[in-house]
TrEMBL record:
One of its GO terms (cellular component) is cell-cell junction. It is a single-pass type I membrane protein. This is Uncharacterized protein LOC111112447 isoform X2. GO terms for molecular function: cell adhesion molecule binding. PROSITE patterns: IG_LIKE (PS50835). InterPro entries: Cell_adhesion_signaling, FN3_sf, Ig-like_dom, Ig-like_dom_sf, Ig-like_fold. Residues 159-252, 257-334 form the Ig-like domain. The chain crosses the membrane at residues 667-694. It is found in: Membrane. GO terms for biological process: cell-cell adhesion. Keywords: Disulfide bond, Glycoprotein, Immunoglobulin domain, Membrane, Transmembrane, Transmembrane helix.
């Protein structure tokens, strides 16, 4: 403010604020933010003035905090001699607070105290006690109200605590983007024109911890997933006065799922979950870290490549699901938006084992109620197919688990019968085998028709011995093969006698194509012995021979002699004519008691038998008894011989029982010597002849024994004896008077076993 006419124009320059001269059409000019300066220098020149007039205004201000006592003073240009000097407080309004005259002070509030003495002093001083924000403002004095805005006053500045700030900014930010949060507050410092000049400082906090590097009112963050767990607050500060914490805010980072997780984690092998068809998998819980939360769907993929929702629809949790072979995978889909989704795929290895399919010559077998018919000598292709995962093991069996073909690591098995036979008839089974599964099977049959013929795979008896008589029958059982089974009406026998009533029956063996033809052939008299031929449906099948069989004759030429070391040599000639199954029983006699020594097989009629017995006690006499036996009975008569063992002599007796011997010692020695020499020579000759004749006439002799009896005048062959154990059938207790209860002879009733023996001790 300066003196002059308000209607005039003035040139004004303010040093330090504006170096340019500007025009003012008034006698005053308001300087903004003058409180920021200690003094303001103005150069003012009226239009007609030749030079500038300089006006200097000193800016007087004090700054105190609330609660302090403020002492304010200034120098007045004069003190009125009359009237009062009024002190004004100008803030939002202008009011007088103290009135002073030369002898009195009037205050509007007890917090004001006027200190100047004398009262009319131009050095104005007063105190404001316990100041508040309302006490801030401009203090000046004068004699009229206009003086409240005159220069020379003092500005009281009272800083206040900033208002509790608010945080502004977008909180939903995609991960990777920049988040800007702004802390906004206002100062409460007074006066208002001072408050407008205040620049607040700010402090940021994360989860209650001060962020040292963040000072401005704006907080910038590169958003990550971790920010969702952070609370951010701020404070405003005016000088040393700090506001309260703002309300916390939380950044909501937005992000799509990186990975989908399943709980529990499926136990996979080679990337797949192995499960049997019909088993249940689940439940599984699906989760994914995404914000906002993802939508979840469970789906499955079938073998045709179609993706379908599970039924009933599932969200994050998959309810237990029954697995079928057409399901290749289950998948949990985490849907963030239409374009962003992630999946967890459970690849399935569904295992199964189907019932085998059977094929005969390429034609599928529909059932096993009837067998597949075919003739002999046909090519038969048998196939088994097993649909399975993993690839199965396949077996083709026949009958009771007899494996005829096997295939591993393949779902097909092929077996070819190059030429069908009767034995191929039967029940076949295709079997599928796979680990952890029960075996599956399909049964079918083959029915190969074949003509009836002898079954050479079964032992066949073609030689039968029998007595004769009106009620004597020989039972003949012959194994045959035939499909369909042979008919009894087509069985015929042809033998030595015509029109013989031979009855025959048919019985099945263990398989359908094997049978027994059981016939009963009567042997009424000697005419009925001979060859019998079985004829079936006009075709000869086999011939059997029935020969004579009766009580055997006793042995011939039974002799014995003793030789060194206590051994006895016994020899005799076989006189058998009673049929097969013949043998000898050798005993020693002591008084009336017989003790069996050996059961010796018959080498054949007319053969020489040689038997060694020992070692025996020296200087003793031994009586030997010999019988001929067969399955009918033993010979009615027995033959005996006695042998005396001396230390230096040998005695031989024939079967004529001499009660006394009147030979002299010399003749006895000569006889013994000649006998020994003769026996040794006979043994040597017999061994040589045996080797020759056995090799040459073995087959011929067997036929002669079966058909024709030996000729009495033939020289006997010498045979090393053979021992046959038949003691379970014959013993000394029933030899003499044995007679069969029935004259019928079962061809399969008797059996024998033989072994070659060198010396019996």
């Amino acid at each position: 403010m300066w003196n002059g006419k308000s209607s005039d124009s003035y040139s004004v320059a303010i040093h330090g604020l504006s170096e340019k001269v500007f025009q003012v059409n008034d006698t005053q000019h308001t300087v903004k933010n003058a409180i920021n300066y200690k003094s303001i220098m103005l150069d003012v020149k009226a239009k007609d003035d030749k030079s500038y007039s300089r006006i200097i205004y000193n800016v007087s201000k004090i700054e105190l905090k609330e609660g302090d006592n403020a002492t304010i003073f200034w120098s007045a240009p004069y003190f009125p001699t009359t009237g009062a000097y009024t002190i004004y407080h100008t803030n939002k309004a202008n009011r007088s607070i103290i009135q002073v005259n030369s002898n009195n002070v009037t205050t509007q509030n007890r917090k004001y105290e006027y200190l100047s003495q004398p009262l009319n002093s131009t050095n104005i001083t007063f105190v404001i006690r316990n100041i508040t924000l309302d006490d801030a403002g401009y203090y000046a004095g004068g004699i009229k109200a206009e003086d409240a805005w005159s220069g020379g006053g003092v500005v009281l500045i009272v800083p206040g605590i900033p208002l509790t700030p608010n945080i502004n900014g977008s909180l939903n930010i995609p991960v990777g983007n920049l988040s800007q949060l702004t802390c906004l507050s206002k100062t409460t410092s007074a006066p208002d024109y001072y408050a407008k000049l205040v620049n607040l400082s700010y402090t940021w906090f994360v989860n209650g911890t001060k962020m040292d590097k963040e000072k401005g009112h704006t907080l910038e963050l590169n958003v990550t997933k971790d920010h969702k767990d952070n609370n951010y607050t701020c404070k405003a500060m005016d000088q040393q006065l700090e506001s309260y914490h703002s309300n916390p805010v939380q950044i909501n980072p937005l992000y799509k799922p990186d990975i989908v997780l399943i709980n529990p984690v499926p136990k996979v092998e080679n990337g797949k979950l192995t499960v049997k068809e019909g088993e249940i998998i689940g439940p599984y819980n699906c989760s994914a870290d995404c914000n906002p939360p993802c939508e979840f769907k469970w789906r499955y993929n079938d073998s045709a490549g179609n993706i379908q929702d599970v039924s009933p629809p599932s969200k994050a949790a998959l309810n237990p699901q029954i697995v079928t072979r057409n399901i290749t995978e289950f998948r949990c889909v985490a849907i963030y938006n239409e374009n962003d989704r992630e999946r967890y795929i459970i690849d399935l290895n569904v295992q199964y084992l189907d019932k085998p399919l059977a094929y005969i010559n390429g034609e599928q077998v529909q059932g096993h109620d009837s067998a597949f018919p075919m003739s002999e000598a046909e090519i038969v292709n048998l196939s088994c197919y097993v649909n399975s995962n993993p690839v199965p093991q396949i077996k083709l069996t026949k009958g009771v688990a007899v494996t005829i073909s096997e295939e591993k690591n393949n779902d097909w098995l092929n077996h070819t019968i190059e030429s069908s036979q009767c034995s191929d008839t039967g029940t076949y089974k295709c079997m599928g085998l796979s680990t952890s599964f029960n075996n599956t099977e399909n049964t079918f049959g083959l029915n190969v028709t074949c003509n009836t013929r002898i079954d050479n795979s079964t032992p066949i008896k073609t030689l039968y011995g029998s007595m004769s008589g009106n009620d004597v029958n020989v039972h003949v059982s012959l194994p045959v093969m035939g499909n369909p089974p042979p008919q009894e009406s087509m069985i015929m026998w042809f033998g030595p006698v015509k029109n013989v009533n031979i009855t025959s029956t048919v019985s099945q063996q263990d398989v359908p194509y094997k049978h027994w033809i059981n016939s009963s052939i009567p042997i009424i008299n000697q005419d009925y012995y001979g060859n019998y031929t079985l004829n079936y449906n006009g075709t000869d099948i086999i011939s059997v021979i029935i020969i004579t069989e009766d009580v055997p004759r006793p042995p011939m030429n039974f002799t014995g002699y003793a030789y060194g070391n206590g051994y006895v040599n016994l020899t005799w000639v076989s006189g058998f004519n009673g049929g097969p199954e013949e043998y000898f029983l050798l005993y020693t006699r002591l008084g009336s008691n017989l003790t069996q020594v050996r059961n010796i097989s018959d080498p054949g009629e007319g053969k020489l038998v040689n038997f060694n017995h020992g070692p025996l006690n020296m200087d003793g006499e031994y009586c030997y008894v010999l019988k001929s036996c067969n399955r009918i009975n033993c010979s009615a008569q027995t033959v005996e011989t006695k042998v005396t063992i001396h230390s230096q002599t040998t005695t031989a007796l024939n079967e004529t029982h001499s009660s006394s011997i009147s030979l002299t010692n010399n003749m006895l020695i000569v006889i013994i010597g000649v006998s020994v020499a003769t026996a040794i020579l006979a043994v040597v000759i017999a061994v040589c002849l045996t080797k020759y004749f056995l090799k040459r006439k073995k087959t011929q002799r067997r036929r002669e024994i079966a058909q024709v009896g030996p000729t009495e005048g033939n020289e006997p062959d010498i045979v090393i004896y053979t021992v046959v154990d038949k003691t379970k059938k014959f013993n000394a207790g029933f030899i003499s008077d044995y007679s069969p209860a029935s004259k019928e002879v079962d061809a399969g009733q008797f059996a024998s076993s033989s072994s070659i023996v060198v010396r019996v001790q």
